[in-house]
Amino acid sequence: MMFGLTGGLIPCPAAITVLLLCIQLKQLSLGFLLVMCFSIGLAATMVSAGVLAALSIRHVEKRWSGFADFARRAPYVSAVLILCVGFYMAWSGWQALPLSS
User: Which residues does 35 contact at the CB level (< 8 Å), separation at least 6?
Assistant: First the structure.
């Protein structure tokens, strides 16, 4: 539940845009209603995703004894993957630069 609640506290650029457009059209009540419905839907989706993730982790831990080791190493694998993507993007950008002779 905290995942959904804290995610809803961050201002959403799409909701702010809708609200500003409705204010410009002088439809404040429509803007408020749209943002409220959007926020309720977003909170329900985030809470559902968090609950599903927690339940699936428990299920996987019961069936796979090596999951704890995998979960402990996953951030390092993710960091290496992000570094590789960053190096590839930097290399691609470097190759695209015009050479001045």
Answer: 15, 18, 19
* Residue 44 · residue 5 · CB < 8 Å: no
Q: How many residues does the structure list for the chain?
A: 101
34, 68 contact by CB (below 8 A):
no
Sign of the C-alpha dihedral, residues 41, 45, 46, 47?
positive
* Distance between CA atoms of residues 34 and 15, nearest Å: 8
Whole-model pTM?
0.54
> What are 71-86's pLDDT values in tens digits?
889 999 999 999 999 9
Distance (Å, whole) CA 15 – CA 21: 10
Cα Dmax for the chain:
64
